[in-house]
Design a protein that fits this description.
two-stranded antiparallel sheet, 3-stranded antiparallel β-sheet
C-alpha cells in the first residue's frame, strides 16, 4: 500500500488531541455510495443496516506531534508507537523525499534519523 496516496491538508484545529467527552459524542462519518453525512457515535445503532460493515480505527491519540526541518523542508511527525527507549514509529508529513539515514531537526538539540519507510 502506498501511504503517500492518503496525504491531504488537515487544519491543526481538526486534529483530536484527547477523547470526546462523553465518548458517544465523538464524530462519525457515514458513507453510503456517493452520499456522505456527518453524525455522532450515539446515532450508530440507528444508522446500521443488516448488511453493513464496520471498520474500526483503534489507534490512540497521544500528544506527541513534532514540527521539524530537513534543510529548508518543513517536516511534521506524529509519534505513533514506541519501539524502545529512544526510538519511535512515526507518521511523517511532508516527507515524500525523506530518505533512510536523513536527519530531521526538531530544535532544542532534538533530532531524529529516518531508519525505514513502512
Amino acid at each position: 500500500m502506498r501511504v503517500d496516496l492518503f496525504d491531504f491538508a488537515l487544519p491543526q484545529d481538526c486534529i483530536a488531541l484527547r477523547p470526546s467527552v462523553p465518548r458517544d459524542s465523538a464524530k462519525l462519518l457515514k458513507v453510503d455510495g456517493d452520499a456522505i453525512s456527518d453524525h455522532i457515535v450515539s446515532e450508530l445503532p440507528q444508522l446500521l443496516g443488516p448488511q453493513d460493515i464496520l471498520v474500526f480505527n483503534d489507534t490512540k491519540v497521544i500528544p506527541a506531534q513534532l514540527q521539524g526541518t530537513r534543510g529548508e523542508a518543513k517536516i511534521g511527525a506524529t509519534l505513533h508507537k514506541r519501539v524502545d527507549l529512544r526510538r519511535w514509529q512515526a507518521f511523517i508529513r511532508n516527507a515524500k523525499r525523506l530518505r533512510v539515514g536523513e536527519i530531521v531537526d526538531f530544535g532544542m538539540d532534538v533530532s531524529a534519523e529516518a531508519e525505514a519507510k513502512l
